[in-house]
Amino acid sequence: MDMVLETLGMTEETLDPQDWADVQALSHRVIDDAVDYLRDVRDRPVWREMPADVRDVFTAPLPRSPSPLAAVYDEVSRTVMSYPMGNIHPRFWSWYMGSSNFAGALGDFLAAIQGSNLGGGNHAAGLMDSQVVNWCKQMLGFPASAGGTLVSGGSMANIIGLTVARNVKAGIDVREHGVAAIEKPLRFYGSDQIHSCHRKAMEALGLGNRALHRIPTDAGLRMDIAALRAAIAEDRAAGFKPACVIGTAGTVNTGAIDDLRALAKLAHEEDLWFHVDGCIGALIAIAPENAHRVAGIEWADSVALDPHKWLHAPFEVGCALVRDAVAHRKTFAVTPEYLESTPRGLASGEWLHDYGLQTSRGFRALKVWMALKEHGADKFGRLIDQNIAQADYLAGLIEAEPELELAALPTINIVCFRYQPGLAGEAPKALNTEIMLRLQEEGIAALSDTTVHGQHWLRVAITNHRTRREDLDLLVRQVTRLGRQIAAEHPASF
Question: What is the pLDDT of residue 426?
C-alpha cells in the first residue's frame, strides 16, 4: 500500500503530533494555567470590554497552513481566556447559570480525549450516561423505572418532555400522520411567567404559539389555580383539547415556584399531562432546608432540569425525565438498518438516541459524574441552601439601605431591587440601567434587569458556589455609590 501511495504521489497524514513530548510539556502548562485561572478568579474583573485588536482576531480569514500548537494556545490565552462572559466569577449574578467546577472541567477534557459518541452502544460511556440519568431520578424522587436522557440544556429538556406529552395526548399516531390529523387542537397551560423556550417548543411541535394558554399569576407570581381550572373548562367548551399543564419550579424573573402539588392534583383530575420546568429550581429537592419548596415535583409526568446550573457542571448539560419510559421511547425511537442491535459486541448496548432528537450525542455525563463523586450530592444540596440564604441576606441589606428599594422578599435565590433616590413614584429606569452597565464596565459585578408587575428592576440571581456575603456587601455599597454619582452627573435627568 505504501508503494501504491508513493506511486500516486500521496503521503499519509494524521492529526497526531510529531513530537508527543512537546505536546506533553504544553499540556502541563495548560493545566497549570487553568489551576491559576480558577484559583485567582476573584482577583480579576467580572467582565471587561474587548479592545479592537482582540475583536479583530475573530475576523481573521480561514487558516490554510499550520501554526505551532504553543502559538495557538498563546492566542487563545490572550483572547478567549482573557475576556470571558464571567459566569465563574463570584460576583456574576446576571443570568441564571452555574459557575462550573474543576472536576467537571477535567471530565469535559477526558470525555473529549476518549471521544465516545453517546448515540448508544456497548461501552462504558453509555453506561455512565444512563447512571447519571438514574442519579437525577433519585435526586428528584422519580421511580427507577422512569425514562430520561441528557441533552444540551433546559430548553431542549423541556422540548423532550412536551413532545412526549403531545404524542400521548394527541389521540392519534402523530409520528405517522402529523399534527394536522389531530381531531381537536391541543392546549397547553403555563403561567404568564413561563420561560420563552415553551413558546419555541409549541412552534417547533407544530402546535403554534396560541396553543400555549398563559394563565394569570397571583401576587407572588405563582400560577392562579382557579384561573387555570376556568381556562381548561372554557377551552373544552370551545372545542379544544386540554393536554398538558406546565408547572414552573422557579421562574427566571423572580424565582417564583408554582404550587406543584395543587397542579399535579388538578392535572390528574382533568386527565392532563403534568410537566414541570425545573431548570431553575428542580434541584432544590436535594437542599435539606428548602426541599419543601418543590414538593410535588416527584408527581410530575415529566421534568426538565439543568445540571449546568445548581450542579455547576461546565456548559452544556441538561436532563429530561419522563415517568413513562415506554411513552418516552415511543416518541423518538427509530431503528435504521445501520443501527440495528446485535446479540453481542459493540452494537449490543442500549441505543440512547432513541430517547431524544440527536443521533450523535456528546459524552456529557462524565463532568457531572466526576463532580458528584468528588463532592457528593449532599454538598450540592448545602450549596443550594447557601445561595438561598445569601439572597435573604442581600434582601436584608437592601431593606436597611434608604436609597434602595426591594421588589419583594425573595422566594429562593433571585433578588429584584432598584436604586430609588428619594423620588416620588417609580425609580428612573435609565438611572438603574446605567448603574447596571457601569457595574459591568468597571468589572465589579454582573447584574441583569427585568420587569416585575410592570416596573423595571435590577436582578441578582445567586447561583454561584464562590459567592460570599462580603460580595453582597460590596454590591450594595457600589450600587449606592454609582447611583449618587450618576444622579449628580445628570441632575436634570434624575
Answer: 67
Helix (H) or strand (E) holding 483: helix 469-489
Q: Which residues face 217 on adjacent strands?
A: 223
Strands 302-305 and 273-277: parallel
Per-residue burial over 256-288, b if 16 or more Cβ lie within 10 Å, else e, is: bbbbbeebbebbeebebbbbbbbbbbbbbbbbe
Q: Give the end-to-end CA distance of the chain in Å, rounded to a whole number.
A: 80
Considering the chain, tell me which residue range(s) the CATH 3.40.640.10 domain(s) occupy: 106-376
Looking at domain 379-489, its CATH architecture is: Alpha-Beta Complex (3.90)
Express each pLDDT in 240-277 by its tens digit: 999 999 999 999 999 999 999 999 999 999 999 999 99
* Pairwise CA distance, residues 422 & 402, whole Å: 8
Q: Specify the DSSP class assigned to residue 323.
A: S
- In CATH, what class is 106-376? alpha beta
Cβ atoms 318, 304 nearer than 8 A: yes
pLDDT at 270: 98
Integer Cα distance of 384 and 145 in angstroms: 27
Residues in the chain, how many? 494
- Tell me where in the chain the CATH 3.90.1150.170 domain(s) lie: 379-489
User: CA 48 from chain center: how many Å?
Assistant: 23
pLDDT digits (tens, 9 = 90+) for 418-455: 999 876 566 789 999 999 999 999 999 999 999 999 99
Please tell me the pTM assigned to this model: 0.95
Q: What are the two backbone dihedrals, phi and then psi, of residue 346, each rounded to the nearest 5 degrees? A: -60, -35
